[in-house]
């Protein structure tokens, strides 16, 4: 059964999902009738740890987003930019093959942002049916999900969660931290 995550929840899937190797992260949202367009973006940061144990991008190309749809190691593939969320189901997806990830990678973090949120005066609370889900890509089963419009109504960015590698083993930790930031702020922090 999928775990419905609450704000700030931390869950460790190492024990409950030991077989997870191929993951899909799905971001979905719908336009409000009569409202303007909302452009949500799903992004991934594939990081090593620096001397201070902080996650930093292995290289700029390991930031996977709408303008860089595949990591150089081929482990992370983005479906491409969706600017309206018009269709049903997942509007943007990111696939991750844990077995292909660069040997130096220790952390893979997933972020959702609203494009131009400040300029457009937007936040998640104005969007309909916004969610982010973690699937087992082999079976399509939902492992965990956040309801973004209810949980993060005042915010413009959410750190969904991260995969961590320790001693060769990957685990996923949901973070569920909301921010009033844009994508550029996150990129600065991971460089
Ligand atoms: Ca988008
Ligand atoms: Ca949609």
TrEMBL record:
Pfam families: TerD. One of its GO terms (biological process) is response to tellurium ion. Residues 1-189 form the TerD domain. Gene3D superfamilies: sav2460 like domains (2.60.60.30). Keywords: Tellurium resistance. This is Tellurium resistance protein TerD. It comes from Fluviicoccus keumensis.
